[in-house]
Design a protein that fits this description.
Structural class: mainly alpha
Distance between the termini: 37 Å
Strand order of the largest sheet: 1-2
Number of helices: 7
Shape: elongated
């Protein structure tokens, strides 16, 4: 099974990513102009680099990563500025991790496999799942099937009938 699992660096940034934990003020400002998805794609490729943005500068290096329209919007919003693009490492990691955590919640992936893909411990996966539970995401389903012939040890006996409810 471990050989079939995707590598973390092969995981795409989901298109439906939103601004959240791990976003710096500059990242939020960039996202206001080009969107959250394009911002993370830009930082994944150019994070940590220094740019002087001008109206005359070539846009194609950004356009090949985020598209022509987003590159134009980025250039117009930040022309005349010198930008040190943040790496956005935490925000990118969290964005890529969300689909994997969703698969764990849906019962399609085990916690151990999610840990292998995301390169973190099972304890960290459980903490992220609890974080999602507090955010109102659906709870993780039980992976192990229940034998229908076995009664639930926590089921209560009806006080009126003395029969175990089914």
């Amino acid at each position: 099974m471990a050989g079939d699992l995707p590598r973390f660096d092969e995981l795409p940034i989901p298109a439906e990513v939103t601004i959240g934990t791990g976003w710096s003020p500059l990242m939020v400002e960039i996202a206001d102009h080009i969107g959250a998805h394009a911002t993370l794609k830009l930082l994944e490729r150019f994070g940590g680099e220094h740019f002087r943005i001008s109206r005359a500068s070539r846009r194609d290096r950004f356009a090949e990563v985020i598209g022509e329209a987003a590159a134009k919007a980025f250039q117009e919003a930040f022309h005349g500025e010198k930008l040190d693009l943040p790496t956005g490492r935490d925000a990118i990691w969290r964005a890529k991790a969300q689909p994997i955590l969703g698969q764990v919640r849906d019962g399609l992936l085990t916690v151990a496999d999610a840990g292998r893909i995301l390169r973190v411990s099972r304890t960290r996966i459980h903490a992220l799942l609890e974080e999602g539970d507090r955010a109102g995401l659906p709870r993780r389903r039980r992976m192990k099937p229940v034998d229908p012939r076995q009664i639930d040890m926590f089921q209560t006996v009806s006080s009126e009938t003395g029969i175990i409810p089914s």
